[in-house]
């Protein structure tokens, strides 16, 4: 299956829609959609990415994001802010807080720093951050659902600052989380860092997928295939398409290039199901999923993680 380069019609291309009650998870209550509040305003003086209020289809821009010294410094600044916002968001995770309250806090911190929350208005996404709980693989929309003791939650933060995007995510524990979930989260994080460690100028992108798949296989975890890492910088999504599983992509990394690596692992099925909101992606069988993501810069010595405090 080839990945579409445009996200319009993505549901029809990649996913089967299923009833929310199909194959319920016996250990946890299945996620249900909550109430989504109105999108939050952004002050007029904060620059918007070009896609905001645009009618053009959202897709992956051709060509890698390669930067001069000024661009690299801008990427470091946006990446650092994204990391700081993510770190703050993680401190909010506790039983009883709603994902909408997390979105509100994240939104406020981003605009207080003069940045724009990149997800807001991207292809119609209604919120400023993605919050993906338990079996949600990615793109969860913050809503009125309160986190419960034992939940896991991936928080995906992207900021647009001085014309450049910084993108990062991590999976957090809510209260007392069982060992099964803890191990999945640890292995997923290890997959990301192992993949970053093999990056360098001239390295083939396929090395990333092999590294992730090899490590996940040791623990019998699945690697989600339909969602990928991507070039990032002046645009939100650009070449390359970074596959997280074994593949035959012969493209090679270049000096001063920036892109994301964002593996998604599952305990059970790797097949995604999209909710009727056209964004929320959950595992077909309700099994747990975890994700970690960094934006990296290819340097002469390997790779620099831009999204860390």
From TrEMBL:
A divalent metal cation 2 binds at residues 167, 230, 262, 293. It catalyses: Release of N-terminal amino acids, preferentially methionine, from peptides and arylamides. One of its GO terms (molecular function) is metalloaminopeptidase activity. Substrate binds at residues 139, 237. It comes from the Eukaryota. One of its GO terms (cellular component) is chloroplast. GO terms for biological process: proteolysis. Binds 2 divalent metal cations per subunit. Has a high-affinity and a low affinity metal-binding site. The true nature of the physiological cofactor is under debate. The enzyme is active with cobalt, zinc, manganese or divalent iron ions. Most likely, methionine aminopeptidases function as mononuclear Fe(2+)-metalloproteases under physiological conditions, and the catalytically relevant metal-binding site has been assigned to the histidine-containing high-affinity site. Its cofactor is Co(2+); Zn(2+); Mn(2+); Fe(2+). Residues 73-299 form the Peptidase M24 domain. A divalent metal cation 1 binds at residues 156, 167, 293. Keywords: Aminopeptidase, Hydrolase, Metal-binding, Protease. InterPro entries: Creatinase/aminopeptidase-like, Pept_M24, Pept_M24_MAP, Pept_M24A_MAP1. Residues 24-56 are annotated as: Disordered. Its EC number is 3.4.11.18. NCBIfam families: met_pdase_I (TIGR00500). Belongs to the peptidase M24A family. Methionine aminopeptidase type 1 subfamily. Cotranslationally removes the N-terminal methionine from nascent proteins. The N-terminal methionine is often cleaved when the second residue in the primary sequence is small and uncharged (Met-Ala-, Cys, Gly, Pro, Ser, Thr, or Val). This is Methionine aminopeptidase. It comes from Citrus clementina (Clementine).
